[in-house]
Amino acid sequence: MATTLIEPATGELLTTVKQATAEEVSRAVAAAQRAFEGEWRKVNTRDRGRLLSRLAHLIRENADELAQLESRNVGKPIRDSRDEVGLAANVFEYYAGATNKVGGQTIPGAASGVLMSFREAVGPCAIIVPWNFPIAITSWKSAPALAMGNTVVLKPAEQTPLTAIRLAELALEAGIPEGVFNVVTGSGSVVGEAIIRHPSIRKIAFTGSTEVGMNVMRLAAGDIKRVSLELGGKSPNLIFADCDFDRAVDSAASSALGNAGQDCCARSRIFVEQSIYDRFAKALVEKFGSIKMGDPLDEATEMGPLITEAHRERVMKYVDAGRSEGATLACGGSSPGGRGSYLTPTVFLDAKADMTIVREEIFGPVVTVMPFRDETDAVMMANDSMYGLSGSIWTRDIGRAMRVARAVQTGNISINSGSSVHLEAPFGGVKRSGLGRELGLQALDHYTEWKTVYIDVG
Ligand code: NDP
What we know:
The protein is α/β, with parallel strands linked by helices. The strands form five sheets. The protein has a seven-stranded mixed sheet with strand order 12-13-14-11-10-16-17, sandwiched between helices. Strands 7-6-5-8-9-19 form a six-stranded mixed sheet, with helices on both faces. It has a three-stranded antiparallel sheet with strand order 3-4-20, with no helix packed on it. The radius of gyration is 23 Å and the shape is globular. The site of NADPH dihydro-nicotinamide-adenine-dinucleotide phosphate has 32 residues, from helix 8 and helix 9.
């Protein structure tokens, strides 16, 4: 059986990719187990770091090809794909440096003994990746796993496996032994579940929807496997009247429309202080109208199509729900016609807290803009969500910025910036946005077990 990949920008056939069978999943996990107990374990930490650095180098050498693959497969603008490939190289390089720096401790304990701890690899790790940031998210999970001496069985999203397959080839070219970095293609419900259920898998790192994340957690419970989850979001963007207005408008657009809004960190709920609400809403609608939508391979393109026609239809249902529940469609909400699954950037005004478009993750280029009275009101509105992944605060008052940053229930928040991911810092969500942190040195906790050893010297 094979999966047909359709190019989102054209609606035409891109290629076909094999769907793994249950037998092939077992072979991949067995290879990961063999490599974990055998060749990979024999590689000393300094050499392990060198291999990961070499992989980072090969990613950079092949950046143009990887970026083209990502743009054609996902439909994202080529400039963004290039940045994400660059990020993947940086992530492998960062964790390459950790292989011989993260270890155990000697612990002051009983006088008659020596108490020490080791940080040991966990075993073969299942890595499940969504379609919105394939190579970036693959690197966030694989690099720390490999750095700590684990092996990997990676399942990319069925629709976007191309950079993962190429990465597996580059890993071999870098000298990483066979069986250490395995890629298995196919659907989540068949291949993903088979990997997760396999008894040799000791850790599951999942990024995707909250609903599937809950299922992953349930499946992991059977064998008490470790789980980390990066899930959905509905992040707030809090705009105070004293902000740098033009920058706040530009960022409100880019942090909601990046990757056509198919971003777990998208600031899709925009809250604006009452006194500047009308002016801000008008400027935002103008900004959304000026976004250059088009061919992902064109350097000037700012926004590409949605991943599939089916996903565009799903997003359109939210647009319909917004209208029927009484919000005002200020711009967008339509297909521009022609080839590809494009949807125009969409702003809803007059939204209410209980509307579907305010509560649910739309995962498309759709925002709501709502007014708030004061700081307390802003924090309350921001926290009125089952998610807590990212967010932004726009103000020139540093005291208020810090108060609000501490009060918003979220894993990440930026002040006067639309950024969410810094590879050196922990990234992840609270509430239904996830469990555990990726990136930074904190990610290494997922991929190591502490072992305590006591020697009696009395
Ligand atoms: P899904 O949850 O549908 O899929 C994510 C991955 O899980 C895919 O590889 C999918 O495979 C696989 N999968 C699906 N069902 C199962 C299953 N039963 N067992 C094991 N694996 C399974 O999410 P989307 O692909 O739709 O991605 C979008 C979601 O990801 C959004 O909610 C978004 O917010 C979230 N996300 C979160 C991020 C974060 O860091 N917090 C970052 C990026 C996205 P397949 O698709 O091949 O069936």
